[in-house]
Amino acid sequence: MTRQRRAVESALAQAEGFCSAQDLHAQLRDAGERVGLATVYAQLRQLTEQGRVDVVRSDAGEALYRQCGEGEHHHHLRCRQCGHVDELHAPAVETWAQEIGVSSGYTALSHSLEVTGLCPNCA
Amino acid sequence: MTRQRRAVESALAQAEGFCSAQDLHAQLRDAGERVGLATVYAQLRQLTEQGRVDVVRSDAGEALYRQCGEGEHHHHLRCRQCGHVDELHAPAVETWAQEIGVSSGYTALSHSLEVTGLCPNCA
DNA sequence: TTTCTAAATTGTAACCGTTCTCATTATGGG
DNA sequence: CCCATAATGAGAACGGTTACAATTTAGAAA
Ligand SMILES: [Mn+2]
Ligand SMILES: [Mn+2]
Ligand SMILES: [Zn+2]
Ligand SMILES: [Zn+2]
User: Fold this and answer.
1) pLDDT given for residue A83 in this prediction
2) Stated pTM of the model
3) I need a labelling partner for B100 at 20 to 30 A (CA). Which of A15, B4, B8, B36 fits?
């Protein structure tokens, strides 16, 4: 448990929606914390492996990270304009995805689902 | 309608699953067609704008393209091992995604959904 | 057919996010 | 404290993508 690790976790904690590794790095720099970009990436990889953060790919292909409430599986409702994210739970979709895969003979199933739109503020 | 345009479309047509821009470029080169990589990207951008191809992001962040049967909206069941892709139609998910967005005050809704697993051949 | 112009093509360089390298630094158990 | 071990981080390398400008081409007009 290093100073840098704490710094990255705290930066993630106070971030509103999803943000990129470089966003976090800049945020830390602005806050006076000196943390290497490589370290930010390393911490994010670890946190991701531990299931402590969600990762999504932006349309531009950039990885975006967000501290994740629970370790449990869920999906996102994201505003294309401001990046605001709500978490969704969708039991019906979970079972649908599972069944459709099984019925095609697939195993080791998983799935990803994201709903996007314009939030009330941005509409 | 140039020779290169025809070549890219034909390469896409005879590709089985999704493939990257660089895959297509290599495939064309092997087939004796001389087409610049920049042109392949340009054609794929156009085809995407026209809705003639699907684009998905690999976990590595690479863009993968596939000629799309219909212009209609659909989703994918993809094998993580061999890349094989089946197209899915899921009316129940469509309405669910729409309703969940509306109920949070969102507009201009869209969504993406992909189911992944190991296909019978790869299991 | 020949001419002409706007559009397409393409090699190359730049771009950008990410990963790698490895010398340096820090951690924490004994 | 000491030291083995792990983390850090500046910079280079990497890989996919895009920008650019020079060249070529398509296709319409003469
Ligand atoms: Mn989440
Ligand atoms: Mn498709
Ligand atoms: Zn918004
Ligand atoms: Zn397979």
Assistant:
1) 66
2) 0.73
3) A15
The per-residue pLDDT for range B21-74, each reduced to its tens digit, is 999 999 999 999 999 999 999 999 988 887 788 888 888 889 999 887 655 678
How much is the average pLDDT of A63-85?
A: 77
Question: A55 and A1 in one domain?
Answer: yes
The answer on B60 and B22 residing in a single domain is yes
Q: What's the whole-number mean pLDDT along residues A5-12?
A: 92
Residues A26 and A61 in one domain: yes
CATH of the domain at B95: 3.30.1490.190
Residue range(s) defining the domain that contains residue B77: 71-123
d(CA A97, CA A115): 16
By Cβ distance, the residue of B61, B62, B105 closest to A120 is B105
Assess whether B13 and B43 both reside in one domain: yes
Residue nearest to nucleotide D20 (CA to C1'): B38
Claim to verify: residue B95 and residue B110 sit in the same structural domain: yes
> Which residue among A61, A86, A113 sits closest to B57, beta carbon to beta carbon?
A61
User: A100, B113: Cβ pair inside 8 Å?
Assistant: no
Q: What are B66's two structure tokens?
A: 């596939």
Q: Do A90 and B79 touch (CB under 8 A)?
A: no
On the CB side of B25, CA atoms within 13 Å amount to 14
A63 with B61: Cβ contact below 8 A:
yes
* DSSP E strand boundaries for B45-106: 53-57, 63-67, 75-79, 85-88
